[in-house]
Amino acid sequence: MKIRLYTPGPTPVPPDVLLEMAKPITHHRLPVFEKSFANVNKLLKTLFQTQKDVFTLTSSGTGGMEACVANLLRREDRALVVRGGKFGERWGELCEAYGVKFVPIDIEWGKSVDPRQIEDALKVNKGIRAVFTTHSETSTGALNDIRAIGEVVRRYDCLHVVDAITGIGVHDLKIDAWGIDAAVTGSQKGLMIPPGLAFVSLSDRAWEAVGKSDLPKYYFSFEKARKALSKGQNPFTPALTLIMGLEIALKLIEAEGLDNLFKRHARLAEATRIGVRALGLRLLADHPSNVLTAVRVPEGVDGQALVRYLRNDLGILFAGGQDRLKGKIVRISHIGYIDDFDILVAIAGLERGLKQVGHDVKFGTGLAAAQDYLGSN
Amino acid sequence: MKIRLYTPGPTPVPPDVLLEMAKPITHHRLPVFEKSFANVNKLLKTLFQTQKDVFTLTSSGTGGMEACVANLLRREDRALVVRGGKFGERWGELCEAYGVKFVPIDIEWGKSVDPRQIEDALKVNKGIRAVFTTHSETSTGALNDIRAIGEVVRRYDCLHVVDAITGIGVHDLKIDAWGIDAAVTGSQKGLMIPPGLAFVSLSDRAWEAVGKSDLPKYYFSFEKARKALSKGQNPFTPALTLIMGLEIALKLIEAEGLDNLFKRHARLAEATRIGVRALGLRLLADHPSNVLTAVRVPEGVDGQALVRYLRNDLGILFAGGQDRLKGKIVRISHIGYIDDFDILVAIAGLERGLKQVGHDVKFGTGLAAAQDYLGSN
Question: Which residues of chain B have a CB within 8 Å of the CB of A60?
């Protein structure tokens, strides 16, 4: 059975990346690696739209998030955490793990935060040192307006730290122009390589905070990462086959160009939404992200059974709902190495799955709508 | 130019492992991955000679070491750290990063710790909660007697935590039988896969300590790892291509058998030592490890120039000396996917390199001695 991934990580890996990683292993002190890593660092800056260094960590994206908390805060600092889903909640859990007190802004899952809520919270709670937000909340498919949030945060003496794990390479995110102090992403999303790497950008303001931080860290120390990067290296042996593959993936992104990359994702996401709506289904998110489309499962349909059938019988991997959304949504990701015809397959699978679990579907309805959009735009 | 790795990580990766990792990426919730991961977990237990679970972390080996400090200690605990090289020192640096006070036992680089030194330190310093040791100290090539150290540590109410990053899969290390409370290894050593994973075994006593620990952790939390493993999963998206490759590597180890594995490494290490000595060179370590052979560079020879020539002109990668040993030793690793003829190439390279940097060498002297040993044993 062919396996097709529409999961929010891992995402499909281009064959050229897979083949690069299958080459005899190299060593991180050899020129062949050092040259690739230098190129990776240059191309990551382009992707992050920053002049500053982007740091590569051997960990999942969560490791990158933890690094931000452990390196940017002091024990007595207070933070503001936007929690609109599982990944927003993770920022709160990380603060808790380090004993950092935080003010939560809890958003109904599926909604995006209103920047005025952040402004209100910053006004009322004096001395907040960092605002933790989520670019594209993967558990709900909701997109947050990072630019507008940034304009608010900039008016306070406060860092803006963004979980952009699934958003970077999909939605425009101008790290420098929008004053984002730290942004995190992971390898198995828009970057199209297997899981195992996280990436973090840091502003000058963030570096000032690093100098003052008193929370414990070693493996995730930004100071160690900076010292190593100044010599073109990593502080600890990196997942170097992934970095070699990453260079190939970043070259593909460079060849496509950021504008085209964002347009392609917007187009594929819109086609997905059109197909889904044509089937009479509703989206969970009010402001849906182009990363993934979270579809409300119709009344009476078991979302978990739907996801299971697609996976086990058709080889099509959607994600189900997590925590409070379990069984209530299916999430169709369209990140990275995905094209028009992959979207048609996803909609075709959704039609087949819905019928299988007892929902009334006229085959081809969603498919025709998506095809019409894709063929005409 | 052909590249040949005799570095203490990365080590050569078998082609079947590389090809496994080049397959279209799978998803960590698919049966194909879950089955592999279950098999990996079973085979890791065999390798670690333990009945307990061995946990897989997506990080370098240092991440696994940090996890031990952060999960096993309380802030007010005191530790004992054996520092006989760069990696012993790392245990101390990790304790410092977490504000844990420790008593160091400093050993001359190249020497092994005498278990009586540990006994003396435990007698004098009451209330030591954990002893941190290094199985094979990669910066010096010295082997420590973990079994004998364990017999001492067992007499105190104290955990024995072992950096076995390069030793596991090379030297016999009986985690359960020798009462080792935590042992760490990394993927790019005896396990023959690329860097990106760390592995940690934990005893029941270690788990008791985990329950009492108050140091901050999230990504490296053993509690989270245990909860996920009870469902056959990882707490965060793992470096799954590496895990798929690991299954192949562990099957190779299983097919060879642990006894044969240790014998092969002992034989290859002995051949290396014989070849080196036949060239009139001396080893750094009194009790040399079978992981790598640290060779003292003869008077008047620039060790860094030797390593550079071998790397740049012959494609043979030895490691040089680190920190205080810079330029004074070369380190020839013989870990993992290495056979008789690889050792001959290493000795041949050493002869060529020595001649190149001005040392008097009769070509074939070391080579003949190594060949004689390998051909006769």
Answer: 58, 219, 236-238
Lookup: tokens for A41: 């660092």
The percent helix, strand, coil of chain B (3-state, each to 5) is: 45, 20, 40
* Cα end-to-end distance, chain B, whole Å: 32
Among chain A residues, CA nearest to B3 = A26
The residue segments making up the domain with residue B310 are 258-376
Where residue A59 sits, what CATH number does that domain have?
Answer: 3.40.640.10
Nearest to B218 among A30, A66, A241 (CB): A66
| Binary contact (A30, B311; C-beta < 8 A) | yes
> With contacts defined as CB-CB under 8 Å, which chain B residues touch A132?
none
Question: B311: which strand partners?
Answer: none
Name the closest residue on chain A to residue B60, using Cα atoms. A237
- What does the alpha-carbon distance between residue B345 and residue B336 come to, in Å, rounded to a whole number? 16
CA angle A198, A140, B225 (to 5 degrees): 45
- How far does the CA of residue B212 sit from the closest CA of chain A (Å)? 14
pTM above 0.95, yes or no: yes
- Boundary of a domain, candidates A223, A238, A255: A255
Q: Is the ipTM of this complex over 0.90?
A: yes
What 3-state class would DSSP assign to B203? coil
Whether residue B236 and residue A66 make contact (CB cut-off 8 A), yes or no, is no
Weakly modelled stretches of chain A, pLDDT under 50: none
